[in-house]
Here is the input.
Amino acid sequence: MSAAQQHAQQLLDYIDASPSPWHAVQSSRKKLDAHGFSELVEGHVWDIKPNGRYYVIRDGSSIIAFTVGAEDLASEGFKLIGAHTDSPGLRIKPKPDIQEESFHRIAVEVYGSPILATLTDRDLSLAGRVHLRREKAIDAKLIHFKKPLLRLPNLAIHMNSTVNIDGLKLHKQTELPLLLAINNAPIGEQNKLIDLLANTLDVSPDAIAAWELHVCDTQAGSLYGADDEFYTNSQLDNLASCHAALSAFLSDSALNAGHFNVCAFFDHEEIGSNSHKGADGSFLPDVLERIADGLSLSDEDYKRALANSFMISADMAHAYQPNFPNAYEPNHKIIVNQGPVIKVNANIRYASNSASQARFIQLCEQAGVPYQQYSHRTDLGCGTTIGPISSSNLGISTVDVGCPMWAMHSIRESAGVLDHDYITRTFLHFFSTANT
Here is the structure.
């Protein structure tokens, strides 16, 4: 197995251990702990020391890690990479039990914009967090059912004869509830999901106060292709970017470079980032301000630090799929395994401008990495990222980049092994060299 394939397998292992945003933060936290990072709690006084390594978690599913540089922060600025921990899919409703016709189904709500048809006929399960009533407090526990627990059986073609012509269309209210069990108890006397949660957490059903549960796939990620040149898993958008950024951030050369390096991974990007822990909230500004305060910077010097900073917004990009050539801008066909993508949009759906593009191109060239440039078809709606949000909130020059991938927002996405290695190498060069 090549070094690039080994790195891709490490990504797949990271994703398999991270079936929800809360688990993704815990997976990242374990890596940070192993490299000598200390947790700072927002409600406590911070004692930031020279050359320190720290991370901050907000509400379990957003995390910001940073190193304290050896140089003057006002002159050097921050070197930031931002990504997101959430992925589109299905979330379990607060009162999910549907008991009828001898079946026990679970009601769900659509989170973000998943390709719903990809959820059918798969071995699904649940992951997330549960809040428990304790005698004097509320306690949060992570939970992950690794066995197949739920299913969304498709309708046979004999009853939907035009499915291969018109495509599979699922009514969000009536056709998405997931099959959990045969209901052997009288109607209204069984709450199968709460029983499952209580048994797994070893608590009484009455102790369960609330939950945030994400429907997840149970199939592990894998390499594929004639030469294992591709990889596939759920949540590549955007845990692949988190893993690449964190791998570079925790490399010896980055940790020993003496820079103010920052990794910021946010929840809620897929639904607009407008929350207290999303990129449009106060989390990143709060942390950067407290770093400056901890180093006794004046307001003037903090503003200088922001002006001298640079941010890479890392989110996956749309790879060219040759079966659907009309979906792509003719001169901007992004090819898998040919390098990270610089994303550009005239309406600032991406934060890139010519200055930030040129800077990232220079990073790629210095790292010996190929790069590509992407623009969406003019007659199709363009997605967005945390880039424009963070850039506008902080005034930091920002570029939007990502690895090419297929089937974005499917429960089974795929991408190229070389690209994950390429972008990690570029991030490593970014973290290891001085701002210019």
